[in-house]
Amino acid sequence: VPSETMASRGAAAAAAERSAKPLRLDIQSLSKAFAGRTVVDDVTLSVAAGEVLCLLGPSGCGKSTTLRMIAGVETQDRGTIRLDGRVLSDGVTSVPPEGRSIGLMFQDFALFPHLSVTDNVAFGLKGRRAETHRRAHRLLERVGLAAHRDAFPHELSGGEQQRVALARAIAPKPRVMLMDEPFSGLDNRLRDGIRDDTLDVLREEGTAVLLVTHEPEEAMRMADEIALMRGGRIVQRGAPYNLYNSPHDKEAAAFFSDIN
Ligand code: ADP
Ligand code: MG
């Protein structure tokens, strides 16, 4: 057997394996302009179940706008968003945000101050109060806050509040979690633990995660894959190690060189 044939067989098998892997979130050629200025430019991305894709880039490059379109709170000018193969939005159809099975965590995604921790987590759940509270209590255990389930948000530290926000975000079992710099408000001491715990919980649930950050160090630590964004475009995509070692250009190299 010629070695060429063997090689192409291997490639075909690898391609088949890749296409067999379900692409939970699949974004094709997403674009958006504000007042004639393009801020998201032909962005194509995909995230599989249980994986973390980091959208990494400097402030103003279009990360949040991309997430907002995926969440359905901003309309796109062009492009298609699919969840498990089903079209969420393509310029013809658009599933409203609450029908998308997408969870959100933002830095300033405040808890309801007048609700207890348990009620905050149970807030979006349908069903009888006893049942929603039981689920909320299980989730609070999961994020290490069982002892605080009757507390109010102002009685908790920033890190604890962030854990409540995580429990609340995963409570309705979203298929996809969109996270927009959710850890940037936390002090360094707390941040590492919460980052790791958050990913543990999301991986266990098999949630596809799209995490936005402007910090290369955070992307290196958390991502299975990084999509490097600049001026509205994805300029490089790959495993963290590959981007770090073989940056696309000088600007990308400079960006990664800040990591110590
Ligand atoms: P990032 O999250 O990467 O910092 P954003 O997506 O928030 O970037 O913003 C990308 C660009 O789009 C910025 O120049 C921002 O000022 C602009 N922009 C974002 N939202 C709007 C809006 N609603 N109207 C006009 N310009 C906007
Ligand atoms: Mg932003």
From TrEMBL:
GO terms for biological process: quaternary ammonium group transport. Residues 25-256 form the ABC transporter domain. The keyword Translocase applies. GO terms for cellular component: ATP-binding cassette (ABC) transporter complex. Keywords: ATP-binding, Cell inner membrane, Cell membrane, Ion transport, Iron, Iron transport, Membrane, Nucleotide-binding, Translocase, Transport. It comes from the Bacteria. Signal peptide: none annotated. GO terms for molecular function: ABC-type ferric iron transporter activity; ATP binding; ATP hydrolysis activity. This is Iron(III) transport system ATP-binding protein. The chain holds residues 2 to 261 of 378 of the full protein.
